[in-house]
Amino acid sequence: MKPRIQRHEKIIALVRENHYMSIEALAKILDVTPQTIRRDINILSEEDVLRRYHGGATMGDILESELHSGKRSSLQDEKNAIAQMIVEHIPDNASLFLSIGTTMEAVAAALVKQRKNLRIITNNIYVASAASARSDYTVIITSGVVRPLDGGVTGVATVDFINQFKVDYAVMSTHGVEQDGSLLDYDYKEVSVMQAMMSNARVRFLGVDHSKFQSNALVRLGSIKDFDKVFTDRPLEEHMQKILDGAGIECRIPQPVEC
């Protein structure tokens, strides 16, 4: 195998594992010049494998598609458990935002089975499809550009659309939670939409499975302390629990099943 091809495979593996890698870090790990890494990233970007950022690269459409395909079957029981807890805190006749992500799709499926007369505003076409099965629901999908990858709708038009509403609940997830409680995601356009949802909701719920506390990303959404309740599938590490306790935020995890 040619050295360049081997290097490309290593770059792809590193970005897949870490989601973002700087040019300097890649050059050091692979023992080549930054100029060589820039050329490699340009080639891989043209192939949609990577996406260039100033000073580094993150996953392109091909890698993200592979990742998302895996996510649809990954930790589904945990996501369903989180969804069930969230639904228990949403009454009939409520209005809510539901954001992008497979956990939010699980929330929509649980709502359809258990709640009546909801008004749902979403930028997730899969959520809209599931919720529209109920004739007593009003389902509004935002304007904007649809991402083929995950059915998410994002962009400036999406933010403007969200800002027209004031709802009871914003229910959302995120890609990663940093040690200091910062919430991170990849797409700044998606982050802008979620920030608008947070600003226009009376109550904010965050649903994240345990893997999100081991993930990072490039764009800061906000803080875990910006939410009224956090729903996850495992007890939090001590430092994270202290952050929530200090802010007076309740964290809910599934109750053990009695044998």
From TrEMBL:
Domain HTH cro/C1-type: 12-39
Protein origin, superkingdom: Bacteria
GO molecular function: DNA binding; DNA-binding transcription factor activity
UniProt xrefs under Pfam families: DeoRC, HTH_DeoR
KW Transferase (keyword) present: no
Residue ranges of domain HTH deoR-type in the record: 4-59
Record bears the keyword Transcription: yes
Swiss-Prot/TrEMBL keywords: DNA-binding, Repressor, Transcription, Transcription regulation
SMART domains listed in its UniProt record: DeoRC, HTH_DEOR
This protein's name: DeoR/GlpR family DNA-binding transcription regulator
Organism: Neisseria lisongii
